[in-house]
Structure formats: C-alpha cells, structure tokens
C-alpha cells in the first residue's frame, strides 16, 4: 500500500472537525465564496443509519469514541493517580456532538460575559471577562436559532435576555413528567418554561419533524426533527459547490511556514496514508480537548511548547460542566405513570437560579431541567439493586414512576485544570492521548449541593415519595461540554486566542469551538459556540480575507447595583 | 477499508426463534441460564429464563457478528478496520472473563454443597452469588431516604468489568434490549416495566413507532406557566 496519497490542491480554508462550530464556519465561508475543505475523524452517517436501539447507542458506543482506540486519561491533580477513563466522550464524526445531543439550546445570559467584573478575584479561580459582550453576540444567536432550527416559547421565560427575533418554531407539548414539573414549579413560585430546543416542530426550512419515538438523547435521529449539523449546515455548505467534505481523516498536526504562519494540516486517511492539505487559513473546530491536543501535537523547532503556546496557557483553564441531578420515586397508587421514556429528553426547565445570590454561599448559578429517565436497560436509578427480586421489583415499581430534575454545573475556571499530552498512553494510531487534570473548585461543590437540594425540593412539591440526590464527587465530563483550553482575550500573556478566536502568534490559525471561552456558561454551550463561530467566520470574510486587521476595544461594562 | 457509514448489513444467521449455541458449551449454557435466572428471577411474570437471556449472552460472546444490529433490524453490521479489531479484542477478553467466572461459580458451589452451580437449589445458588459478589443479596427498595449516590456516566460499556458485574449488566441488557439481539423474547422484559417498545427496529428507523400518546394532550401553555398569565 502506498504510504502517501496524491497531494490535494491548496484551498482557502481547511476546517478540522465538522461538528457544531466546524459546520457553522463551513457554511459561512463557503456561502461567501471561499474554497473550503472540511476534515473529520469519523464517518458521515445519514438519518437512515439510525434507530431506537438502546444497546447499540447507550451500551456499545456506536456514536461515542471507542475507549480502546481513542483512550483518555484523567487525574484530579498532580498528586493523584492517573487512570484510563472515557472522559467527555464527544462523538467524533460528521455532525459531532449535534448527532447524539438532547439539544438544549438556551442562550447565554449577559452576566456570563463579565464574570471578572461581577465577582473580582475569586480565590483559587481564574475568572476573566470575555473580550465582547452579550449584545455583540446577540445577532448571531438569532441567526443560529433561525438557520439551524430551534423551538421555544416567546414570553415564557421570566429571565430571558434581550432578543432581536422571536423563536422560529413552537415547542412540542410537555411530557407527563414535564407537566408534573410545571405544576410543582407553579406551586413553589418558580418560573418553569419550555427550554429552547435544537429541533423543529414545524416544517421549518423544509425539514420533516416526524420523530416522536422518544429515542433522543444519545441516539441518532432518523429524521430531520433534531437540529444536527450533519443534516443542516453541512448539506447547505455542500450546496454552494465550494465545500468539500472528507470524512474519516485524522489530522495529526498543523504544519507551519518559515514565517510562522500555518501552512496547512497533515492527516491520515482511512487507509492510513498521510496527506498534506495546504490552506491560506486553518480553522480548528474539534472541541476544546482535541483542539488543544492538536496544538500541542503540532510542536516544532519554531513552536517548541506546541503551536501558539508562547504564553504556556494552551490546555489550561479547562471547564467541563458536570451534569448532576435528583431523582424522585413516586408511589404508583397515588400517581399516574410519568412515562420517562417519552419526549425529547428535556421537558420543562428554569433559569430562576441562574444569577448570584449571596445568601446561597456561592457565586453564579445554572440552568435546570426535567428530563427523561431513559430506556429500560440504562434508566437513571442511582442505587438500583443489582440482582434478585429487589432488582426486578425496582424496575417494575419505579421505571414508569420516577422523574429526574438535572442541572448543568457552571464550573469555575482554574488554571491548573487542564488538557495535556499524556506522557505514556497513546491511541491506536500511536499518538499521545489527552490527559485531563481536573479538580472541582470549592464554588462548584457548593453550587452543585445547593442546586441539587433545590431540585429535590421541587420533586418533593411534586409529590415524590422519595428523592435521591446525586452531588458532585469528581469531574467525569458526562455532559461532553468542553471549554476554555485556549482562552480568548486581548493580552497575549494571559490568553491564547484574540477576540476573533485567532491565535495571538499564528496569524492565519483560528480555533472556533468552545476552546476560546474564558469562562464556562451556566447553560449548555453549543448555541454560544455556533454563534461565536459565525461571528468569527464573518470577520474572516469581511476583514481577514481582505488583509485588514480590526481590533475591538475592551468592552466598557457598567454594572448596575 | 470501509467507513462505518458503509458497513454492510449481513442477514442474521439465527432467527429470533433459534436456540442454536454459538459459544457456550452445554454445561456453560446451563450454568449461565441458572445464574441469570437468579439475577432476574421468574415470579408472576417472566424472568431472565423466559426472556432467553442466556441466548442473548451467547450471541454477544460468539464474536463480532452480533454487536450492532442494522438500523432497520434486518441483520447485523459487518464491522471492519480498527473498530473490528477493537471489538475482537474486547470479545476475547470477555470470553475469558465468562469462562473463568463459570469455573468460579462451580468452585464455590462445590465447596459449599459438593455439586455444580446449575444443580443447586435457588437458595443455594443465591448463596453462591453472594459469595462471588462479596456482598449480601440486595434488599428491596424502600421509600425511606437514602444518602447521595454516584455520578451518572454517558454510556455503560463493560470494558474491564469483573464477571459478576458483567453478568448483572448483561442480564439487564438481555431482558430489555431489542429482541433482535436474542433476548427479551416476545418483548417480555418491556411488558414487566410497562415500556411500550417498538414492534421492530424498523419501526424506529422509519418513525412509524411513536410515543406521542404519552405526551400531555391539549396543553395550554398559559395554564402551566403563571408568568404568561401575569404579564397579561
């Protein structure tokens, strides 16, 4: 077999990773006439490849990275042992996380962009303001909601940030457990509402919202109900004739020229042949773990500590959003079945606990949502009896009589929480894997406890006979949300990317996934990632491509008391 | 090398009715059938024995031909490349785990009662499983409060699991996985927990399967969300 395939023609832009942010960049650049190549490590699966097969998707990793081919290692800190662990198993295939996601699509709040201004120097954390504000991102949030597809109910969220457009598609009705959540919230004076959802309920942009199977979170969608990059922005980019998608291509390094700019990328194709794709622009969109890993793998004589890493900050300040929850068990004699197999994962949520309230003893807060407990093999039942009559009775009595209220933990950035190359473990291609060092900040532990307890109160108000809390023990990456490893900012000494997510050092290298987030949000990050990728791609089209460099002024923030 | 997107589906050699053994010896089959019947016992409703959990596990351990059902349920995906290699290695490790585990069940059984595991009474078998697991048989779920419990992980794979934990997990899977995989015969597992599952994987692939009736019908948002009424 030939070790080298024919070298392809140089293009305007090569985009590494074809998920939420990579597909957004592909759409914006190819629609503006750029010649673009998209490379993805995984296959391009189509709707017809998907089914409601719990064993295949949830137990046998059909979408998640195979943990023996693409391992990761994790440790809490330098003094703790390192273990092999499938941390943050974001699917590596065309469409990325938008293939398997539940699709919570909430907007960030204005406070998310000014955490440093609001809270100052939180001890042992590394808070920073974003280099732009909510208002700067708002037009792009609207663009993504309308172009990508989003359900939501106008006027239902008491705490909604300013919006320039209504939601494009109405929400589907509540599930039975969703209704129980709304009723309990009303009783407690909590503003429950249908969270914005990355799906359509009407034939928005010609889509066919016919999936009512309940096989949703962690499954692929056999229709176009769900907003999935592989069935929306990727085909739209392909339709321009300017975009070429190459699945099953594993990018192993970014190459550079003598002047310190990026020359292109080297990848292994499906047959293991090495190919170099040159491009005027290199855009990394693989998620904050793999993008940081690729920067580190791309070390060279000119960049001895990894590409664009003069600051030493590549991989640092990583945040991961642990998912935590409380479960309520209900007595069947007193309640109708809650049918936790039905729905589109979330049904009803609240932003009521998002902003800081000092009396709680922690800063910040997070989004909460009632959600499906899942399907019979893996339904969420912490402490489930493993075997015997108790195991069978537990399933029989409570599978249909339980519900879950979860939260997305708004974790604080800590510089020593980071992504590096593991010194020992390699993947099936012989390259060092990502080692994650992550220890929750004390504020994370307090916020988790407070909010899980609050979720238990809601379950109690709903009439649960018993509630089971799941607090923060350790960081497992179970949301697949990844951010902060290549922090953006104005100062090259304290950030890796500038305000357009361009490397401070490598003038034609952009990273458009969540890597640039200076702080995590208290909501799911994908809408913000896509909006930011759109914003930065537009900058590339309007300014970078014309040889202009436009720098933003540091935002002037006025915080009212 | 074929991309996952192009893996062909081979029709399953075995029908959902077949009891042909692909991996276990007669003795191993009998032992696992007995053990899974204690993990998910038969009562006024079917248990692991009636769901044919042993058949599900036998097909899983047989190699890599019964790992991923095709989306329309007509057969199984024929893997290739590194993923196929990874599954072959996983399969070889899990076969060893089972072979050693079955010997261990018999060793404990012989030590306690002088007979192989499959020939013991149910109570004796429970005792062997307690000894194997190192913990007492689980007590019924009560509605009194418990302390906090561990984290939820995305996905529950079986890499590196010990025999007892793997057996319990595979028993759940054989009870509740789609019948295409050889267990959950006649969807008896789903009936026990009142899950209105699909007739076939094909119905989930073309979305003729629907749980829309289990949503709340005729919902008026203003009734559910006081804030919408307060605003007027």
Q: Which of globular, elongated, flat, extended, rod-shaped describes the shape of chain B? A: globular
The N- and C-terminal alpha carbons of chain A lie at a distance of 69 Å
Order of helices and strands of chain B: EHHHEHHHHHHH
CATH fold name of the domain at 1-78 and 88-113 and 130-151 and 225-317 and 417-434 and 483-561 in chain A, please? FAD/NAD(P)-binding domain
Oligomer: heterodimer
Categorize the overall geometry of chain A: globular
Q: So what's the CATH class of the domain at 1-78 and 88-113 and 130-151 and 225-317 and 417-434 and 483-561 in chain A?
A: Alpha Beta
Count of DSSP H/I helices of chain A: 11
> How many strands, which pairing sense, and closed or not: the largest β-sheet of chain B?
2 strands, antiparallel
**Helix fraction bin of chain B:** 40-55%
Number of domains of chain B: 1
Structural class of chain B: mainly alpha
What's the overall average pLDDT of chain A, rounded? 96
Fraction in helix of chain A: 10-25%
Low-confidence stretches of chain B: none
Describe this structure in words.
The complex is a heterodimer of chains A (561) and B (232). Chain A has 561 residues and is of the alpha/beta class. Chain A has a domain at 1-78 and 88-113 and 130-151 and 225-317 and 417-434 and 483-561: FAD/NAD(P)-binding domain, CATH 3.50.50.60. Chain A is built from eleven helices and 16 strands. Chain A has helices at 20-31, 54-59, 97-100, 115-119, 134-148, 176-188, 233-239, 288-297, 389-398, 442-462, 526-542, and strands at residues 11-16, 36-39, 73-75, 83-84, 243-246, 250-256, 262-268, 274-284, 323-329, 346-350, 368-371, 402-408, 418-426, 432-437, 466-470, 509-511. In chain A, the strands form three sheets. In chain A, strands 1, 2, 5, 6, 7, 8 and 16 form a seven-stranded mixed beta sheet that branches. In chain A, strands 10-11-12-9-15 form a five-stranded antiparallel beta sheet, with helices on one face. In chain A, strand 3 (73-75) and strand 4 (83-84) form a beta hairpin. Chain B is mainly α and 232 residues long. Chain B has one domain (4-139, 158-197). Helices cover 45% and strands 3% of the residues of chain B. Chain B has helices at 26-39, 48-51, 53-61, 81-113, 122-133, 163-176, 188-192, 201-205, 221-224, 226-230, and strands at 9-11, 75-77. In chain B, strands 1-2 form a two-stranded antiparallel sheet. In chain B, helix 1 packs across helix 3, helix 3 crosses helix 6 and helix 4 packs across helix 5. The longest helix of chain B has 33 residues, at 81-113. The termini of chain B are far apart. The relative contact order of chain B is 0.15. Classes of the chains: A alpha/beta (561), B mainly alpha (232). At the A-B interface, helix 2, helix 6, strand 9, helix 9 and strand 15 of A face helix 4, helix 5, helix 6, helix 7 and helix 8 of B.
């Amino acid at each position: 077999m030939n070790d080298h395939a024919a070298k392809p023609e140089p293009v305007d832009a090569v985009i590494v990773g074809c998920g939420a942010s990579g597909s957004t960049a592909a759409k914006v650049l190819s629609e503006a006439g750029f010649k673009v190549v998209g490379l993805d490590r995984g296959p391009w699966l189509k709707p017809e490849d998907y089914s409601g097969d719990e064993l295949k998707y949830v137990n046998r990793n059909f979408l998640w990275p195979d943990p023996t081919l693409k391992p990761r290692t994790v440790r809490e800190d330098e003094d703790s042992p390192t273990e092999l662990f499938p941390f943050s198993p974001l699917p590596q295939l065309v469409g990325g996380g938008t293939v398997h996601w539940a699709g919570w699509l909430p907007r960030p709040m204005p406070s998310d962009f000014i955490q440093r201004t609001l809270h100052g120097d939180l001890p042992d954390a590394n808070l920073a303001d974003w280099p732009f504000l909510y208002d700067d991102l708002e037009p792009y949030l609207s663009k993504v909601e309308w172009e990508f597809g989003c359900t939501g109910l106008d006027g239902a969220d008491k705490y909604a940030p300013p919006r320039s457009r209504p939601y494009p598609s109405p929400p589907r009705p509540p599930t039975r457990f969703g209704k129980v959540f709304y009723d309990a919230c009303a009783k407690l004076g909590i503003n429950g509402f249908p969270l914005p959802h990355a799906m359509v309920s009407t034939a928005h942009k010609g889509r066919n919202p016919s999936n009512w199977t309940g096989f949703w979170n962690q499954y692929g969608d056999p229709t176009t109900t769900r907003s999935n990059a592989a069935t929306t922005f990727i085909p739209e980019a392909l339709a321009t004739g300017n975009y070429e998608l190459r699945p099953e291509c594993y990018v192993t390094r970014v190459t550079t020229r003598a002047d310190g700019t990026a020359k292109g990328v080297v990848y292994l194709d499906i047959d293991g042949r090495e190919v170099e794709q040159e491009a005027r622009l290199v855009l990394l969109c693989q998620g904050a773990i793999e993008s940081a890993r690729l920067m580190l793998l791309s070390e060279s004589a000119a960049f001895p500590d990894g590409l664009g890493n003069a600051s030493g900050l590549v991989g640092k300040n990583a945040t991961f959003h642990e998912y935590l929850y409380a479960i309520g068990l209900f007595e069947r004699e007193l309640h109708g079945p809650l049918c936790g197999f039905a729905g589109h994962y979330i049904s009803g949520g609240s932003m009521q606990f998002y902003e800081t309230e000092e009396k709680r003893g922690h800063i910040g807060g997070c989004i909460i949502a009632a959600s499906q407990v899942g399907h019979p093999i893996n339904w969420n039942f912490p402490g489930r009896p493993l075997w015997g009559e108790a195991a069978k009775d537990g399933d029989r009595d409570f599978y249909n009589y339980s519900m879950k209220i979860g939260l997305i933990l708004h974790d604080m950035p800590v510089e020593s929480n980071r992504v590096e190359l593991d010194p020992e473990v390699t993947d099936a291609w012989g390259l060092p894997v990502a080692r994650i060092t992550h220890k929750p900040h004390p504020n994370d532990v307090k916020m988790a406890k407070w909010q899980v307890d609050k979720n238990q109160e809601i379950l109690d108000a709903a009439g649960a006979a018993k509630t089971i809390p799941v607090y923060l023990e350790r960081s497992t990456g179970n949301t697949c949300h990844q951010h902060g490893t290549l922090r953006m900012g104005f100062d090259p000494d304290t950030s890796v990317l500038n305000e357009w997510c361009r490397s401070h050092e490598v003038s034609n290298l952009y990273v458009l996934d969540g890597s640039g987030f200076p702080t995590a949000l208290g909501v799911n990050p994908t809408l913000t990632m896509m909006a930011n990728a759109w914003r930065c791609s537009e900058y590339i089209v309007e300014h970078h491509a014309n040889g202009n460099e436009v720098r933003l002024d540091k935002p002037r923030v006025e915080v009212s008391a | 090398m074929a991309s996952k997107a192009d893996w062909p589906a081979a029709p399953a050699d075995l029908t959902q009715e077949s009891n042909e053994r692909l991996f276990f010896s007669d003795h191993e089959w009998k032992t696992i059938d007995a053990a899974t019947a204690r993990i998910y016992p038969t009562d006024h409703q079917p248990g692991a024995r009636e769901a044919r959990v042993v058949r599900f596990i036998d097909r899983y351990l047989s190699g890599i031909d019964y790992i991923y059902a095709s989306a329309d349920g007509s057969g199984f995906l024929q893997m290739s490349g590194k993923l196929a290699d990874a599954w072959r290695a996983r399969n070889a490790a899990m076969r060893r785990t089972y072979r050693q585990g079955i010997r261990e069940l018999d060793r404990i059984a012989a030590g306690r009662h002088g007979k192989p595991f499959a020939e013991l009474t149910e109570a004796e078998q429970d005792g062997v499983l307690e000894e194997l697991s190192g913990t007492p048989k689980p007590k019924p779920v009560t509605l009194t409060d418990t302390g906090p419990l561990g984290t939820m992980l995305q996905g529950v794979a079986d890499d590196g699991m010990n025999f007892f934990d793997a057996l319990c997990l595979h028993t759940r899977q054989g009870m509740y996985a789609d019948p295409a995989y050889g267990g959950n015969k006649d969807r008896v597992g789903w009936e026990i927990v009142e899950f209105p599952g699909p007739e076939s994987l094909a119905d989930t692939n073309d979305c003729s399967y629907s749980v829309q009736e289990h949503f709340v019908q005729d919902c008026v948002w203003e009734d559910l969300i006081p804030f919408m009424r307060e605003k007027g």
